[in-house]
Write a structure and sequence with these properties.
five-stranded parallel sheet, alpha/beta, 20 helices, binds adenosine-5'-triphosphate, single chain, 461 residues, binds magnesium ion
């Protein structure tokens, strides 16, 4: 007999849950609908809800009158609410007794997809079911698409964790304002990217985005770098020079490592924030500049205020809006998302065919503490792509070999012996074979050391 593939694997039927306490109606419905759907039957609310949770049927027909009070609608309404709170996309078609239009309408008001009154016209029900399944599938596809789209970078920033969603929401909110923004976060968390994103989304995006790192320039030069100087302002000032504030005219000035700014420059910055005016070094007139200031630091400015290193008034001026970037390890799901994107990017750049990570590498990526945050992740993946010899990246390629990795899959006894052997070998080589010193260092008597070495198969030479 010849059988076509489709006969071997009939297309999967969609699941339909029929909640009906009258067994003759239930059987009749099952019989009529079994050809098109995988029909699940439940006779009361609790069973129905269990099935709903287990099988996740996209469509349900729900008799409102269920035991223990089949004459009333309470159980039915309860079931409706519970199912909808479980899956908001579920299409629930309510079935009522005759002359109960009011309840039917109420159910629709509470989220039911449609209603039917008994006796059920099967052909009519089939049409409604067909449309309900279609709609539910469409909604789910739409949802999936939206999720995929949100994995697209936000102005170059990747992240779908709730923590980063919150950051993106703040960026959207502040981008259109003129307020200064203070960006806080550990090193490598993306502070500069945030500043750029805000600039790009603001009305100043056609203007310049000027970055200055306050800790990279000696204090004596920083003042003129920021505010410019007049000719002859100091030895070596052969001509007038504009500072970064003036270069940023019409755009954004990003002051990185603001925590390092000296107190006297803090005063000048504060004056700008209050009056939008600056004075070049050695200059007499004030110059109006139209610049939005953003600042970033990985230092604790509050600590700086307590110690008198950072002016409180400046802190409050700058921090009208504060955006705090969470450390990478706290961003749920983002490590793998960013990792995948970077792997793709660096493989293309290096013309290497790497298909992914070994399971051990994935585990190592998730277990690592990421003190250097996204910058560290970038560096590790970049390096791993260059080092990788196989088609999958290993913990070794990432330089994330855990000290426990070699004991994985061993029992305690073997692990203990492995560790003992390692320690003894190390001590022997460190003490150049002097076993008296080795025993001393390891805190055991010499005979014990000999015994151990014999047991572990270590030569006494
Ligand atoms: N969410 C992200 N998605 C993708 N890349 C990111 C993300 N956050 C940061 N990066 C990348 O990580 C690196 C560090 O980012 P950035 O320079 O903005 O961090 P930072 O907080 O200013 O660091 P530092 O404190 O060291 O100056 C950059 O190469 C940046 O492109
Ligand atoms: Mg930075």
């Amino acid at each position: 007999m010849k059988s076509t593939p489709s006969a071997l694997h009939p297309p999967l039927k969609h699941k339909l849950l029929v909640v009906e306490d009258d067994s003759s109606i239930a059987t009749q419905m099952k019989w009529a609908l079994a050809q098109d759907y995988e029909v699940l039957l439940a006779e009361d609310r609790v069973t129905a809800l269990d099935m709903f949770k287990q099988e996740a049927p996209p469509v349900v027909t729900l008799d409102l009158g269920l035991p223990p009070h089949p004459g009333e609608v309470e159980e039915g309404f309860k079931a409706l609410a519970e199912m909808l709170s479980q899956d908001g996309h579920a299409k629930i078609i309510v079935i009522t007794g005759q002359g109960e239009k009011e309840n039917a309408l109420k159910a629709v008001g509470e989220g039911a997809y449609d209603f039917f009154s008994k006796p059920i016209q099967i052909e009519e029900l089939k049409v409604v079911l067909h449309r309900a399944f279609y709609l539910s599938q469409l909604e789910r596809e739409h949802d999936d698409l939206r999720k995929k789209l949100s994995a697209e970078p936000f102005e170059g920033m990747l992240g779908t964790s709730p923590q980063m969603e919150e950051v993106f929401a703040s960026i959207r909110k502040v981008a259109t304002t003129e307020a200064p923004v203070l960006i806080l976060g550990d090193s490598g968390t993306g502070k500069e990217l945030v500043a750029k994103a805000i600039h790009q989304m603001s009305t100043r995006k056609e203007g310049p985005f000027v970055v200055i790192n306050c800790s990279a320039i000696p204090e004596t030069l920083l003042e003129s770098e920021l505010f410019g100087h007049e000719k002859g302002a100091f030895t070596g000032a052969h001509m007038q020079r504009k500072g970064r504030f003036e270069t940023a005219q019409g755009g954004t000035l990003f002051l990185d490592e603001i925590g390092e700014l000296s107190l006297s420059l803090q005063v000048k910055l504060l004056r700008f924030l209050q009056e939008q005016r600056i004075e070049r070094v050695g200059g007499r007139e004030e110059i109006f500049v139209n610049v939005r200031v953003m600042a970033a630091t990985n230092r604790d400015l509050k600590e700086g205020m307590k110690e008198g290193r950072f002016r409180e008034d400046l802190y409050y001026r700058l921090g009208v809006v504060t955006i705090a970037l969470p450390p990478l390890r706290e961003r749920e799901g983002d490590i793998l998302l960013i990792t995948t994107a970077l792997l793709h990017r660096f493989s293309v750049e290096n013309k290497k065919k790497i298909s992914g990570f070994t399971p051990q590498a994935v585990r190592a990526l998730q277990a690592h503490h990421w003190p250097g945050n996204v910058r560290e992740l970038e560096n590790r993946i970049k390096r791993a792509v260059i080092m990788a010899e196989g088609s999958k990246i290993t913990p070794q390629d990432l330089e994330l070999v855990s000290q426990y990795a070699k004991y994985e899959g061993h029992g305690l006894k073997e692990a203990r012996e492995g560790l003992e052997k390692d320690l003894i070998e190390r001590a022997i080589s460190k003490n150049k074979g002097n076993l008296t010193k080795v025993a001393e260092e390891l805190g055991v008597a010499r005979p014990t050391l000999y015994e151990l070495m014999e047991k572990l198969g270590l030569s006494k030479k």
